[in-house]
Amino acid sequence: MLNKKTLKDLNVKDKKVLVRVDFNVPINDGMVGDDTRIQAALPTIKYLLDQDTKVILCSHLGRPKGEAKPEFSLAPVAKHLAEVIGMPVKFADNCLGDVAQTAASSLKVGEILLLENTRFHAGEKKNDPAMAKELAALADVFVNDAFGTAHRAHASNVGVAELLPSAAGFLLEKELKYLGNTIANAEKPFIAILGGAKVSDKIGVITNLLAKTDKILIGGGMANTFFKAQGYDLADSLVEDDAIATAKELIEKAGDALVLPVDVAIASDFSNQAENKVVPIGDVPTGWRILDIGPATVVAYASIIQKSKTVVWNGPMGVFEFPNFAKGTFGVAEAVANADVVSVIGGGDSVAAIKEANLDNKVSHISTGGGASLEMLEGKILPGVSALADK
Ligand code: ADP
Ligand code: MG
User: Least packed by Cβ within 10 Å: which of 66, 104, 265, 357?
Assistant: First the structure.
């Protein structure tokens, strides 16, 4: 993985360890909702406790815009972490200043401290050197386990990494292994499945993956823009007029490698209750819109998936939020889960869909980072990773 130090390369024994985690989780009425990101950080935290360290955790939550706003407090996360890890978690209501210094210096070996939201300070997003210095002063070494923010150069992941001996935590290491190594050295046939609303969000991903994969299966609203580029009338379907020219270029460049749906599920309105039917592409009546791929497409895609060895998937095949238009996404998810493949799923909505289908433990890797996973699929090196110490 990119020749960066990982947790086991770092001498942590008896040290104060600052860990940047991604605890940006949903909070509803002061309670943690989906705690996947907290669970995903446990291996690193537990390893550090076993190494007789003092564990100081920091994270952002939401977008408080550089001000201390109570609705973005990490206090509920400290409570939730204490429950899942089965031990007390101390909380400092400021990640900087006397509060943080006192809390960090009074911490004992085997204890956990969570610092308040790093984005309560404007210096975080500016990667302010003074903020990085204050954070670094709290600890002896730094571990970055926050994959979800690794595509941002902020004080708590990039600034601090430049000031302390550093390494990637187990979660970051795993994400890089699957989204980096697996893709760079994929066993062939290697295919990508790309969907979601817009082509414009994913041009970088398509371009990068076209060079590496054998085929790209397209679905979701994104397919519409490709169809428009081929001259089809799509009635009221979502089409990005600005991206038609790019879609045309991609089709020409990719040839057979770019696979488009053969049938689509259409709706008389943008709602789950709308009248719906399956038609061949090209037969979308006036006033109707494409909301999913059709059953023949699911069968065709499943057969390609079964014959492959490596699959990377980003973007739902349809408006899966409407149960009547989730069949394409769930059908493809089923095919990926049941195939004998190394499968990597990235993207906030794609991950939500695979969890909703209860197939999340039947794939090789589910990424904890939406934006960060997209940038990895674009072939970019993430600033949070490059800032870490080399092996
Ligand atoms: P991810 O978060 O996995 O990267 P995106 O955010 O790119 O995925 O796209 C997900 C969104 O795309 C979903 O909200 C879904 O409803 C929407 N979408 C998928 N297919 C269509 C379609 N045919 N028309 C309109 N929206 C669509
Ligand atoms: Mg999304």
Answer: 66
The residue ranges of DSSP E strands in 234-350, in sequence order, are: 258-259, 263-267, 276-280, 289-293, 310-314, 342-346
Q: What is the pLDDT of residue 2?
A: 67
146 and 84 within one domain:
yes
Per the structure, how many domains does the chain have? 2
153 and 208: one domain?
no
23 shares its domain with 159: yes
Q: In whole angstroms, give the CA distance from residue 191 to residue 194.
A: 10
Apex 350 CA angle, 348 and 355, nearest 5: 95
> Residue 343 and residue 364: Cα distance in Å, rounded?
5
Q: Is 253 within the bounds of a domain?
A: yes
118 and 192 in a single domain? The answer is no
pLDDT (mean) for 166-194: 95
Residues 198, 248, 309, 380: which is the catalytic one? 198
**Together in a domain, 145 and 258:** no
Cα 253 to averaged position of ligand 2 atoms, centre (Å): 26
Q: Which of 184, 126, 214, 193 is nearest to 376 (CA)?
A: 184
pLDDT over 90, % of the chain: 96
Give the CATH number, domain containing residue 289. 3.40.50.1260
- Judge if 138 and 221 occupy the same domain: no
Higher pLDDT, 198 or 49: 49
Task: Write the pLDDT tens digit of every residue in 114-127.
Answer: 999 999 999 999 99
Residue 38 and residue 61: Cα distance in Å, rounded? 12
Cβ(290) – ligand 1 distance below 6 Å: yes
Angle between helices 327-338 and 295-306 (to 10 degrees): 20
Both 66 and 109 in one domain: the answer is: yes
Measured distance CA(122)–CA(332) in Å, rounded: 43
Task: Say if ligand 1 is within 6 A of residue 156 CB.
Answer: no
Instruction: Give the model's confidence band at 362: pLDDT under 50 very low, under 70 low, under 90 confident, else very high.
Output: very high
192 with 158, same domain?
no
The full DSSP string for 44-80 is: HHHHHHHTT-EEEEE---S--TTS--GGG-SHHHHHH
